[in-house]
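Question thread 4412

I'm putting together a teaching handout and wanted feedback from people who do this every day. The idea is simple: show students a protein as raw sequence, then show them the structure tokens that encode its fold, then repeat with a second protein so they can compare. Below is the first pair exactly as I plan to print it.
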Amino acid sequence: MTQPLAVLAAEQKSADVTDWPDRIGWIVGLLLFIALVYWLMRQGWKWRGTLQGDLPALPAAPSAPGPARLELSGRYHGSTTAGQWLDRIVAHGLGTRSRVELTLTDAGLDVVRPGATDFFIPVAQLREARLDKGIAGKVLTEGGLLIVTWEHGDKLIDSGFRSDRAAEQAEWVETLNNMIDMNSTSSTDTTSSTTITTEGTAR
């Protein structure tokens, strides 16, 4: 009886031996695969940035933008071509996710991003604000993102933000759209007045 028990114990001890060369080979192969995927992602990012090289430099905030109408602290989740939430824009740092401080004044929207490129959207370039659930690969609950549509160069851009206090995003949508409507009306009135004045002078 003692001999079979000894054989069984020896077999159990042998089963604990690990095939280290195979395991190390698998680990090295996995690390190389991860490195390859990361390299391909970086190359794709650079290629996309090259394609978007015609996008003008981002506007800087004016020295005297006026008093703040609204302020927001939260996260910047990226920018895409307007209406195409997966067509990420990476030129000029717009593809970098970051913390964000938004300040809305009569001059426009100031976007301050610690550790990333700041930019400013003049009120004349604002086109629309809405609540949505996704942008640039980031999906949240319905209405979880504040999306600001703006014009830069000849391109319409959607930029996505999420406030640390999500309930205040509805106020931002309302205020931004009111500003856009007022600016659009003012621009139309100015154009009409200029046309009437020109016609009167011609006569």
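The second pair follows. I'd like the answer to focus on this one:
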Amino acid sequence: MTTGPGSVTFTDGDADPPAQRIELPPPAERGATVIRDKAVGRIAARAARVAQSQRAALPPDPGGSAPPSASAAVHHTGSVRVHLDLDLPYPIDIPLVCERIQHDVAEQVARLTGLRVGEVTLTVRRLVPSSDARRGRVR
């Protein structure tokens, strides 16, 4: 049995009785899905962890490098602004890696939420020296 758009068919498990058909209001009248800032921030933080591991693998740090953190501001227009805080290894091409991480996070947030990502700002909390850089300067 087929039903038209905007209708739902319920059955009580028996094949004999006719199915009950309920007409739903048009999609525009049903309401909207609201994605909270905090949820988008969590998605962005996870995307930043993945992007950071792919774009700028941090060396093992005995002090423990903090995972990336993120905050988001969702606007009623369906767009979102994301801010990231993360650590990066040193030496590294900071502008290039930051640009790639911003792109990866924006793409992932847009794909998972359906929101248009207007801006991704990034703050580098600290630079973590690699094992080569820790040995000191070579003369």
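Top answer:
Good format. For the second protein you could add a caption like this: The longest strand covers residues 116-129. The mean pLDDT is 82.
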